[in-house]
Each structure stands twice: as C-alpha cells, then as structure tokens.
Specification:
Radius of gyration: 21 Å
Structural class: alpha/beta
C-alpha cells in the first residue's frame, strides 16, 4: 500500500463516516515509500529505519473516530461477499480470517493479479498502485527485513567503484545523481534506451538533467537497450560488462536496473 491506497482510504473514511467503516487491508508492516527507499539504499550514513512509516495511528488519525481500521494481512481470495485473508486478525475486537464488504477498491499495482483473486466475474477492480524493481519495492513485507536489505544494498554501493544505473526514469536519475553527489570519486554511468532522459516528461527536462549530470560527472549511455542476463547481474563485487543491443558495453562492478 502506497500513496494511492492510503489516500483513497482516508477520503472514503471521512466522506462515509457513520455509514461505512473502511478497512485498509495491507500485507506490509509499514508504508512503502517507493521513491524514498532508493535514497536510503545508497548510503549507510542515514537512519535507515526512518524510511519505514507506521500505518497506525497516522493513517486514520485525522478521520472521524472509528471510521477506518488498518488490517495487516494478505488477501487469498475475493468473492462477491467476503475477502479471504492469509491469517487470522482482530477486527473490532473479533478474530476473523474473512471479512465481509459492501464495496471493494483494490489498489494492487497489477490488475491481472487482482483479477486472479476474484471468484465473482462481476466484481470490478481498480488497479492504481505502482510496483518498481528493488530497491524501490522491497523483497519483504517486514520492516526489520527491509532495513537489513537497504543497508546491505548501501554497503554494496559503498564498496563499488564503477556503478551502472539502468533506466533513465525518475528513480534511475535520482539514484545516479545521489550516488555521484555522495561519492564523487566513483564512476557512475546512467544507461537509458532513449536519447531523451525521462522521456515521458516535457523535453526541456531532458536538457536540465543532462546539464546536472555533466556538472556531477555522471556518464550517460543513451539510445540503446541493455541485454539483461536471465540470472541477473553479479552482486559479489566482481567486474563485468553490461551489454547493449548496439554492440557496445559498459564495464561495472555493480548494476541497478529500473
């Protein structure tokens, strides 16, 4: 659950207080700040645990009392009357594994996954979430595991000399420039398949980013896709090549793909 899900739940709880109680069902122990995690993943000189924001009491703190409840659980199945959870939880003082609902809003990042949970074909799914590759989306739903993962990722960045960031979208640009600002002695190469960085945005943004990359010393490799290996890139600190479709390659000892 990220921005869209929390905001939706808050608005519904406020608007329909007294008519419905909003249950925010979430498998993660803490709010998943997809765009903050990469910043905590490049240096160990931060309080990594602060990247994880508790859902309670803040989620419904400004909503009418009792209008919203956070339920930590995964969803196994959805039928036309109930949501089947992957564990027993306490809701309004009762232990339950299934919760009835009148209306359902799913902010799952993948509409296909949401639809696979449905047993009633007439139920509609709204898929508004976002899922990015690690370290944006973490491989665990628990805070403790997430903190460990981010610190281990930061340790790999700190030990590397030649770093390749694959993907010139917002997160790729953010990570490449963050690393170069914190570690100006490292070689950082931003690889993007288009000639324009952050090509989904206004073309003038491309010029601003390229100028900043030049100021920082971030190298750019644009206009060709990478050949992603089936087993991923090495993470043991050894030197390897990131190969591109145009026949060129970038030598690196750590690669992050967005």
């Amino acid at each position: 659950m990220s921005f869209s899900g929390v905001n939706t739940a808050q608005q519904l709880a406020t608007k329909f207080s007294g008519r419905f109680q909003v249950l925010l069902i979430e498998k993660n122990s803490h709010f998943q700040h997809l765009f903050a995690f990469p910043r905590f993943a490049v240096t160990s000189k931060v309080d990594t645990h602060k990247a994880f924001i508790p859902f309670t009491p803040g989620t419904f703190a400004n909503c009418p009392a009792g209008s919203g409840v956070v339920v930590r659980a995964g969803v196994k199945k959805i039928d036309k009357e109930e949501i089947w959870l992957d564990r027993k939880v306490e809701v309004n003082g009762q232990g339950v594994e299934r919760v009835p609902y009148a209306y359902l809003v799913s902010t799952n990042e993948d509409r296909r996954v949401s639809n696979e949970l449905l047993t009633d074909s007439d139920t509609q799914v709204i898929a508004t979430g976002t899922k990015l590759t690690p370290p944006s989306t973490l491989p665990s739903s628990d805070k403790a595991d997430g903190v460990t993962y981010l610190r281990e990722h930061a340790d790999k960045v700190e030990k590397s000399s030649n770093i390749a960031i694959i993907g010139g979208g917002a997160v790729g640009v953010q990570m490449a420039t963050d690393i170069k600002e914190i570690y100006p002695e490292k070689n950082v190469t931003l690889i993007h398949s288009r000639e324009q960085i952050m090509n989904k945005f206004h073309p003038q943004l491309d010029g601003i980013i390229k100028q900043r990359c030049e100021e920082l010393g971030v190298k750019l490799k644009l206009g060709s896709r990478v050949k992603l290996p089936a087993k991923g890139y090495p993470t043991d600190g050894s030197t390897f090549n990131v190969e591109l479709m145009d026949g060129t390659s970038v030598s690196t000892d750590f690669a992050v793909c967005f």
